[in-house]
Amino acid sequence: MTFLSNMTHAAEWGHWYTRDGKPCYEVPYADPSKGMRSATLKDAKRLGLVPGVTTIIQGAAKPGLERWKVTQGILSALTLPRLPDESLDAFADRAMLDSREQARKAAERGTAIHAAIQGHYEGVSPDEPLLAYVQATVKTVDEEFPPARKWQSEASFASPLGFGGKTDLCMNNEEYAVVLDFKTKEFADTDKKLAWDEQCIQLAAYREGLLMPSARCANVYVSVNNPGLVRVHEWPEVELQRGWKMFQALMDYFYARTGLARIA
């Protein structure tokens, strides 16, 4: 039974897929008048869903993300004025809430840019404020991976190994196969460290799930704070093979921890 929501560009967590590869991010409430709600592990067990790649790799440490979160907390603590007679604990709680709000705003901005780029490949023109991001990304992708045929956008799958996913862009033809994943984040032209292990793990799993085990895989980084700045990191084959091994270990951990039955 397939439940599809209208969340075209869903959040990057809590992803589930039907056994035929369709996204199932939401399911109906028991009371249909309440609409839809996010799918849970309990729903996955009831409906025979498989976890998404991004759900499985939540079990791995993400040093880049954690560093960014700590930085946001420090910035909030340094810039927020302390209220009269406010205790240290109360100030710390307020600083934490402020850092979370900044993170939410950053995520919304990044999601809007990501959606505009994805929309371009689906034939949707971007809004003017997002045009520079889209044009720079498309130009960079075409230079790095000259399209021998049309890109396939948001190809979803469910692997018999027990995981599903939906990649941003992929291409498979006689010349070469490519799998791309967009990442929107704040960075400058001088920043050197953009690529992290979890991103390699994600792409390694995608190409296996898409039955493209020899595909070239790359992350396309789009700067949120510098419109027009785009970088591409293509993962070497040796790293992708390492990423696939790590993903299989994380998948074993996920199934052991959740008690979810593996699909056959």
Descriptive keywords:
disordered N terminus; globular; two-stranded antiparallel ribbon; 9 strands; alpha+beta; 5-stranded mixed beta sheet; 264 residues; 42% helix
Give an overview in words.
Helix content is about 40%, strand content about 20%. The protein has about 260 residues and is of the alpha+beta class. Strands 5-6-7-8-9 form a 5-stranded mixed β-sheet, sandwiched between helices. The longest helix has about 35 residues, at about 90-120. It is globular and about 70 Å long.
Brief overview:
The chain has 264 residues and is of the alpha+beta class. The protein is built from 7 helices and 9 strands.
| Overall spatial form | globular
**Overall mean confidence score, pLDDT:** 88
Q: If helices are DSSP runs of H or I spanning 4 or more residues, what is the number of helices?
A: 7
What's the quaternary structure here?
A: single chain
Query: Which strand order does the major sheet show?
Result: 5-6-7-8-9
Helix content: 40-55%
Separation, N- and C-terminal Cα atoms: 17 Å
What structural class results from the helix and strand content? alpha+beta
Reported for the largest beta sheet, the result is: 5 strands, mixed
Weakly predicted, low-confidence segments: 1-13
The overall strand count is 9
Provide the gyration radius in Å.
20 Å
Range of strand content: 15-25%
Topology as a string of helices (H) and strands (E): EEEHEHHHHEEEHEEH
